Amino acid sequence: MTSKILNIKKFELGGVFFVSIFISAFIFLFLPFYNAQALTLTPIRMEIAGDPGQVLSQEMTLINERDTDEKYYASYANFEASGETGSPSFVNATEGLGTWMETVESIDLPANSSKIVQVKIKIPANADPGGHFAVVFWGTQPPTTDSGSLAIGAKVGMLVLLRVNGDVDENGGILEFATKDKQTFFTHLPVSFYYRFQNSGGDRIKPEGDIAMKNIFGMTAEKISANPVEGNILPNSIRKIEANWQGRGGTAGPTDLDNKNFLTKAKYEWRNFAFGRYKAKMLLTYGTQKETALSSFVFWVLPWHLLIFIIIDLFLVFIIVRFIFRRYKHWLISKIMHGDYGKIAVEQNTNEMQNSLNSQNNSQIQTETQNQNNTEAVKKPVRRRI
């Protein structure tokens, strides 16, 4: 305990307790590859678990992409969450995981070459179960000999996320889930969501799950990943994670110039179409026991520029059809007034009358023939047998 207090005092005398490395370094830590000083590391993150007293080993590759020979030095630091963005704050490794790791002190890399090095983790027998987090840095400057400060320079590093097995409390939950700025009315996609997840347990949590967009009929219109960046939430911290429901037009909306153009906005709403009331239902699982967390948010998508454009189009179609029908009606009346259709009507009536007379004559002839046959039958003499 006394040693720990002395170390802390010495660190305070060094001037800095928490040291934030450049934003570019953080970007590297969470992207597959990042190039600083023409040095590339892979992998950029090690997620590993072990028992107290166990020695773990992991390979990492250093790639010198410069045209000159370089020498790189190894250094270590612990890190913890800073704010809700997931950005790490690096802490000088006076204890914890940063002091459990070891690798070569330095490495000479010829131009445009690569080498594989081993990183060993010696977990103490009395290590606390749960999450421990550190980073292995590589830079062109040797590490400082002052244990109370952390050398600042152009560095790249590999995150090490260690879980020491044992009885670990896993507890967390969703604090908030909504759209960006809690907006409930949209004219088109994309719709941006965020949620704040609290990890009150003893190990990191990586939420997994989906956000389902349910329309007014309860059908799933779309389903997106709730953790697209596969972000981890460190113990006793809150992290804000974002996800986007994107349309076919991508994430970018109309520019300021487009905003002055009604037709352009209607076209954009058509390419990124959604309509009506939606309920975003998020289901997350986390931890080794696959605990679940639920939340939902209701919003509307009404592409009113597009709707007005469609209504105007339908109105124009109605006017055109009505105009054509009226023109046809006037043309038909004109033909009738000039007698063309009158002659046709007279000829049709004449033919109908002629057919009627012919039918009557045929009927009369058949009747007379029948009567004549009946008369002849009456006049015919009857023969008697004697």
How would a textbook summarize the main sheet? 7 strands, mixed
Assigned CATH class of the largest domain: Mainly Beta
- Supply the CATH superfamily name of the largest domain: Immunoglobulins
- The N- to C-terminal Cα distance equals 162 Å
Tally of distinct domains? 2
Strand content: 35-45%
Nearest-angstrom radius of gyration?
Answer: 43 Å
Spell the H/E element sequence. Answer: HEHEEEEEHEEEEEEEEEEEHEEHH
Low-confidence stretches: 1-36
Helix content: 25-40%
Q: What is the tally of beta strands?
A: 19
Q: Whole-number average pLDDT?
A: 82
Any idea of the CATH topology of the largest domain? Answer: Immunoglobulin-like
Rough outline: elongated
Number of helices: 6
